[in-house]
Queue: 4 jobs
Job 1
Amino acid sequence: MISSKLIRPLLVFAGAALTIVALACAPSEGSDDAERTYADPNPFLYDDPREAFDYMEERLINADSLYTGVIVDADSIFPVQLVAEVWGGQNNQLKITAEGNMADFLAPATLLLVSDGERMTGGRSSEIGFDTTTAPALREAFAIGLSRMGLLHNLTRLYTGNPPDHADGGIDDWVQVHSFEWLEPEVVARKLTRPMHFTIRINGEDTAEATLYLRRETGLPMRRVQTTRLAGGSMTIEERYTGWAEKEAPEGTFDVEAAAFD
């Protein structure tokens, strides 16, 4: 009999082996099925990691309904521990909530952003926040910010009382990603992922390196590990994404009046 201690490693190995078979059977770029393959979320079907990344980002931008939970853990000179939830809807509807500790001696933080598509409010309190007309590119700024820089960047913006970066437009030119490469498949939370590594460039300057772990079944990230270069050193950020779903938000999710700070 095979020892129970060996069963899980064997299953993982079998999953990786099946993935290699799928890669071998995937249609070539010039085949009739190439266009259909590009629309498949499975990251193991893409030779070019940039194509898989672009398709993932396009889905985050254009999804009519979107949900994920996020666990953020950063060390080094800027310690952060946060648990967040994100809901996205149509026409610039967006809700982000987060609880945990930010820097400033691990000060407790409650962060919020809610937009009904016409009005948005957020920040960390009624004194340190905003209440204004919804920015025209809010959903795009959120989605591109998440895929290219991670959620923490815009959570930090909320902590300082500001909406997501470049929510008025221009984020695609402001933050760019390049030098993509696939890494070896890896199991994350018992799911097979295909990690991709890339460099993050902000305002023309390379500022960080990131590895994004895309789940085989969905092509959406399960984990992100990023090292950002700062003036006083560096910061390592890990984000774990849980429960991705393209599902309609519960009634009242985007109610600005109900969510506004007292």
Note: The helical segments are 4-25, 34-38, 49-62, 138-149, 152-159, 171-174, 256-259.
Job 2
Amino acid sequence: MQQPSLSELFRPFLETRAPLLFLIGSLALAILGNAVYELLTSTFGATPEFLIALVIGAVLIFAFVAVGFRRLLRALDARQVVVRNVVAPDQQADPHAGLILPVGLNPRGPEAAIIAWHQRNATLRHCWLLVTPEVERNAKFGDLKQSLLERGVTPHIVPLDDSVQAEQVYGQVRATITQARQFADAQPLIADITGGTKAMTAGTLLACLGAAVAVQYWSVPRDSGGNPRLAEDGRPMKVVVRMVLEEVATNDHSAA
């Protein structure tokens, strides 16, 4: 059986989830602090100069420990980064003038990074945002819409009543594609399938497949645990769907 670490032993005394243990830990730290203070003042005297030096020393020690701990966390975090799903240059989706973008509720989602990618060289001119009522009430949606306006991109809102019905999403995306093709400055058109629900992904992909519209997926590096890193570090990967029809041989002699 693995022995608990020192930090695990002291953790219950420093967390408020267990009030009694937290009280015992607070009292122990207070007694320890008073004992150290009494020891120092009895040794060096409680003169104003010594107290000022003591305060300055405590502040410097605290700052040194805080900065060192932060650097240690960054170093450990950097070592955990394992770059996976690296998109080769020939597999990256180029910036497009028109973008169909499903928007999810995740505040750290890739939507802003996707818009920034297609805005390179002022390429993006129109963006159709697929949003549910929950997303439309979220502050994230307002920020995305405002960023599009500030970049000179025309936002188009495509409401989705039900984000778990792939058939409804399919119909809305097909109608969006028809609308987008009426704008000459929205061509070429591409759709992203990263954000939103699985039904939104499936409906968008099928609609684009039937209408011959390009599709992309925003691929981001992942750490050793498989968790996605910053969305800004990602790249759009072109999605290519190949349909394979397999002929199934029938046994004519199986019928009785």
Note: The radius of gyration is 29 Å.
Job 3
Amino acid sequence: MPGEFFSQDPISARNLDLLAEEASGIAQRRICELAAVADRMVKQVKILSGDGMDLCSCLSLVADLIPDSSQEPWNVPNGDPAFPLPRAIPGTPADRALFDRVALCELLLEKLKAAPLPLSESVFLPEEKSGGTVCYLRNPLSDEAFDVFSLQIPNARVQYADSLREACARVAEGKCGYCILPLEEGGSRLASVAALLYRFDLKINEVTPVFGYGGDADMKYALVAKGFRTPKVHPNDDRYLELRLRFDPLSSSELTDLLTAASRFGYSVYRINTLSIPAQEGEVSVCSLVFRDEGKDFLPLLIYLSLFLPDHTPVGIYRNLE
């Protein structure tokens, strides 16, 4: 009968349920071991921070305490005729390693807060006091952007520059607190501006769309400074964390793991693209990543980056002032 032919096999269904329970139990045991690792890390962080070391430096040192679960033995060898598709089976060492990293970051965050140790986004993204002087290359679009940004800067004053490079140089030299740069056109990041941010090591503090007199400019402008200015978490605000990763030390697995970890922390990817930036050492290939916070702070992701991708460069944390 058709109903019998297409019915589920109760034995297989039960076995799969039992295996799921077993896997859940093993995952819980791994979390317990990771909690013990996090306890040891926090103990060392407290000692190091007591000697005056900042939290980011502490985490980079205690990262050596983390076991490398990616090297754990895998009991289904490739080519075993009894398991013709071992590569498709979840739970490989690489899968376990990413599970461990995400869980460890969440556990470490809980234990650092309970220690208690000073912990905020600004610990990882240091803020720098900027004066109220804003420099930019004057045109109708940058004037419009200034009108928006000036609402965020008490007693904002203007200096005009002859070029975008000059505006960036004034900020880098401390002659101005901020500069305003065109960031995107038609949804595409401007490579020349990305090169300026790279060259002068400047940070994006705010972003706003600019439409011009006709309402059809489709541009975004950025308020840029030497340091970060971390916006507070509000339920109705979208906040963004922008990172830059150089390709020469970055592997495809590291990038995939970062994107997966960010998803598990609850963030969404707003933008990802590659750029070739002219630099003094020659053309540099980088990956630009922008994550949206989805109403949460970025602390789990910042801890992940400090422990497992120390070569990353934060480019900005900002709101889109629409």
Note: DSSP finds ten helices and ten strands in the chain.
Job 4
Amino acid sequence: MSLIILFTIFGNYYIQQISGWASPISISVILGLLFFIGIKMVIWIIKIYKFRTQLKLKALIPFIIYSITFLLIFISPNWLYADNYLSEIKYRGCYEGTINTGTIYFRESREFEYRHVGIFGFTKFVKGNWTKNGDTIIIKYENKTPKFVGDRLLMTETEFRYISNDTIDKKRTKFYRGYCKGLN
């Protein structure tokens, strides 16, 4: 169980790429298993207290494994995420709508990622490559170009703006630069 949780957390970056309901399902699995392990830990604490005079190290191994799992997840989980082992993010942007959030990442390796999380955690993940020409970022997608982002963005000090036919479309989506602020 502990390994399933750790591998699922590590692989969440890849699970998000499946798009659709894969990410909310994996999060539900992780939370369910953590709840189950929490119950098992309470049972082990009661057993340890009841049989404290007769305990041997071998009997404590499950409790130790569960405790280490909780510590790895809740104290310092950064090493668990596959994102941390990819190329550094050079520019990042966020869009926060009423019931959705979109993030864009421009990596040092010239890889582009767009993650869109909608209602109930429904996820869309798109990848591609990017180049910069002055203040314009040009994106070449691996598959279909998402209308929400487009293939060209104007980069300013504070935001990324959608460019259509060499004009900035003020009615279209704009991403502010930096981390999401939790505004929605």
Note: The two ends are 34 Å apart (CA to CA).
